[in-house]
Design brief:
- The protein contains four helices and eight strands.
- The protein is α+β, with helices and mostly antiparallel strands and 195 residues long.
- The strands form two sheets. It has a five-stranded antiparallel beta sheet, with no helix packed on it.
- Strand 6 (139-142) and strand 7 form a beta hairpin.
Length: 195
Amino acid sequence: MNPLNQQYAMTPISASSPQLGPLGLPMPWRAAPLEDGTGAGLRWVMRRNCSLAPRQVLAAYFAFCLVSLSIACVFAWFGAVPVLYFAGLELLVLGAALLVYARHAADHETITLKNSTLAVEHHCGNRVERSEFRADWLRVEPAQGQGSLLELSGAGRKTFVGRYLRPEWRQMLARELRQALRVHTATAASGEVLN
């Protein structure tokens, strides 16, 4: 087993024992070993809190279309044809709103600590922003103050993480990142001494 994983003592979230945050609610992330076969690293994934997945949105939209058009057709059968036009307009606007929602339902941030690099990926719609930092020189600080986004900075570059976390959980993520970086730096230093 990788010394980083041994010293950091991570366990995957299970339904029987979720890790609780400051308000007694389960935390939306958990550091986990990389699943690349080597296990030599950690990954944090923070996702947008969405009630419905894109497939569920599509199914709900089609069900709503079926019901709405059925009712509109009954009214049109009895001579109230404008109801059918308004139902079509309503479904068009609802479809546009749900399309915007579905595009961003899978937005997430991924922080990966592997070897001596910490990589941050922010997925927003079809766009992916990636930043890489040397783990030895990385600073993890709140951007503005308590509860703000976390600023990761090093070598003259910076990025912000924690968009999809509640403000009270960002400090916990910062502590977890700092601990992992300390362990990683100590592990890397002891590895250099042994070589």
